[in-house]
Amino acid sequence: MNPLRYLEKRIRGWLPKEFTIAYANKASKPSWWKPLWIVSILGIIVSALVLFLSGYSSLERMILGLVVAFCCLGFAYYIRVHPSITANRVVYVCLGCGISFVLWVVIYAISGIGRWVTVTLGVWPSLIIGYAVFIPLGILIGDWIGKRTNYQLPLSL
Prior knowledge:
Layout: H1 3-11, H2 33-53, H3 59-81, H4 85-110, H5 113-121, H6 123-148
Helix pairs in contact: 2-3, 4-6, 5-6
């Protein structure tokens, strides 16, 4: 395979849509595509059974965990098979919320500012300030990252 084409295929999902490639037609699915979903489903079921049979979780918690895991797996399958700007925007906003959570931990917890704000104002105002600042900041960061990539997920076909 041509090294330039290989590199182009690897970074294609990160390039903006204005960047058109002359021979970038819709590629076929990779050979590991179908086994990935099968192994994911089997891994979820086996891990739930092991947790239930070991007595670590009750039947209700196992069923709830399976429902949540299958919903997440279904969403992951959906954004890969039927990509849309709306679903990709949701993914980028969730990515931004994850980045804002890391920022919140670094600024609030590690630096000691959180302890000072909590002692000064109290617990609930401290939490409200933290959520009112960092959640919208994360949404803006995720949306900004998504706009830069035209809401196209990396490695999407």
